[in-house]
Amino acid sequence: ALTPGTDAPTWPPEFATRYRAAGHWRGETFGGMLRERAAAHPDRIALVDPAPRRRTWTYRELDEAADRLAAGFAARGIGRGDRVVVQLPNVGEFAEVVFALFRLGALPVYALPAHRETEITHFCSFAEAVAYVVPDVHEGFDHRELAARVQQRTPCLKHVFVAGEPGGHTALSEVPCEPSGPREGPRPHELAFLQLSGGTTGVPKLIPRTHDDYLYSLRGSNEICGVDAGTRFLVVLPAAHNFPMSSPGWLGVLYAGGTAVLCPRPDPATAFPLIERERITMTGLVPPLALVWTDSAAGSAYDLSSLELVLVGGAKYSEQAARRLEPALGCRLMQVFGMAEGLVNYTRLDDDTETVVTTQGLPISPDDEIRVVDDADRDVPDGAFGHLLTRGPYTIRGYWRAPEHNRTAFTEDGFYRTGDIVRRLPSGHLVVEGRAKDQINRGGEKIAAEEIENIILAHPSVHDACLVAVPDDYLGERTLAYVILRPGAGPLRPVDVKRFVRERGVAAYKIPDLVAFVDSFPQTGIGKVSRKQLRSTAEQR
Ligand code: J2J
């Protein structure tokens, strides 16, 4: 069994007591939540998976599917505290699997569909996962082959479950069986799952979220966004990502008794007909998608009039683009600035247009503590640029099994160092102005510079590598890898570096967009590589 606090720092008792007393932590669990909703409104539609043929789940059906799948997982030895890497695209099985695991107290580890052998092997071995759940073929890529390779490299991995044709593995559809009676589920203060961090270091960190804290963030998000039983939410971004899962996301919508519709692909050609057919009222997009949707809406033959609210976040949304969204899509815009580690900010439904298009909103909770500080951790006045630090009822106090990293990623008194540079307005609204962390935000997809540099460094002809962001009209940022070759190394082309990274097996969005060969890197005063100077060189290119 997983003892809270041993694998990750948790909230000090006085904070936990306060968050409970304030009614933030209500002692609910995900398993219990679904059970209650199924009892209250069994025949309402919880979930729609429109492709390739439309499937629906009522609340009762989802509840029963989770029970039967939980029983099947348990029969295969999966139980409380066990980790299970879940890499599923936007399909109904995603919800069945994670609710089954929630019921058991087993912890889903959310991988993205784009992740490949390097990332998945790391998640499986670091988390000591006992099982890995994959689709058969997704976007032309065979995840069963990936799973076979990962299994070879990861002895702890006992099971591979496939949603679809199983190949040599176990079909997910064969797993469910009759539950043998009520089982003792996890406690509300225990971990519910491990979410992925965008990462700033060589390997992605795992984010431990509890039932209590995450359910509070859902409840708060629902209130701010006006999510209720009538909400029909389109899950456009990958369902495993924190934004479409919880801000307010498909879990928020299930909490409120609404309907989540899973969009298989994010392009307007896929999404717009679904909006019309399913009478979608709400969705969440990253800025590049919001741009494409805005541009496509004008000439679109589809009826988008059911849309009431579009949330945009994950990366900086330009003011000009933000101004165009409401008129183009005929709905309200809400900016959201969140992070899988916790803190989520939203502009509010009653904010004026200026505020909505120029700020990234206010925290969910009155108990979200916000500090904006200088390099020496001294608070700066409102309006001044500074590092954003935060602590609160749904922000983690440490990454999972990462005591060393936690010492620098958190302050002594438990504030998370977000790595974001912000300004706080007198109204409390935050404006994201930049980033101090070594992370590149490629249209909402996060890339840890060091992770890719380490891969490039493994190339025998490479002496040193540095990955920086270059501005991009569409994505906001793209990646540029500066590479120093070893003396006497044979000639290398940009395409060779890209291929090398791809062949190592990483998500396609992490493959450098551009590669430039240089003789040396600019140094800072203390002899470190100056990323700042490299970035400005890159901008001039
Ligand atoms: C600028 N940067 C932003 C924004 C996130 C809701 C929404 C987004 C995420 C998310 C999330 C930004 N403007 N509007 O989990 O629940 C950058 C910041 C932040 C990092 C977190 C949610 N919204 N960012 O994007 O864990 O740098 O979560 O620290 O993927 O994205 O990334 P991630």
UniProtKB/TrEMBL annotation:
<keyword id="KW-0436">Ligase</keyword>
<dbReference type="InterPro" id="IPR020845">
    <property type="entry name" value="AMP-binding_CS"/>
</dbReference>
<dbReference type="InterPro" id="IPR011963">
    <property type="entry name" value="DHB_AMP_lig"/>
</dbReference>
<dbReference type="Pfam" id="PF00501">
    <property type="entry name" value="AMP-binding"/>
</dbReference>
<dbReference type="InterPro" id="IPR025110">
    <property type="entry name" value="AMP-bd_C"/>
</dbReference>
<dbReference type="InterPro" id="IPR050237">
    <property type="entry name" value="ATP-dep_AMP-bd_enzyme"/>
</dbReference>
<comment type="pathway">
    <text>Lipid metabolism; fatty acid beta-oxidation.</text>
</comment>
<protein>
    <recommendedName>
        <fullName>Long-chain-fatty-acid--CoA ligase</fullName>
        <ecNumber>6.2.1.3</ecNumber>
    </recommendedName>
</protein>
<keyword id="KW-0472">Membrane</keyword>
<feature type="domain" description="AMP-dependent synthetase/ligase">
    <location>
        <begin position="34"/>
        <end position="400"/>
    </location>
</feature>
<dbReference type="InterPro" id="IPR045851">
    <property type="entry name" value="AMP-bd_C_sf"/>
</dbReference>
<dbReference type="InterPro" id="IPR000873">
    <property type="entry name" value="AMP-dep_synth/lig_dom"/>
</dbReference>
<comment type="pathway">
    <text>Siderophore biosynthesis.</text>
</comment>
<feature type="domain" description="AMP-binding enzyme C-terminal">
    <location>
        <begin position="451"/>
        <end position="528"/>
    </location>
</feature>
<dbReference type="Pfam" id="PF13193">
    <property type="entry name" value="AMP-binding_C"/>
</dbReference>
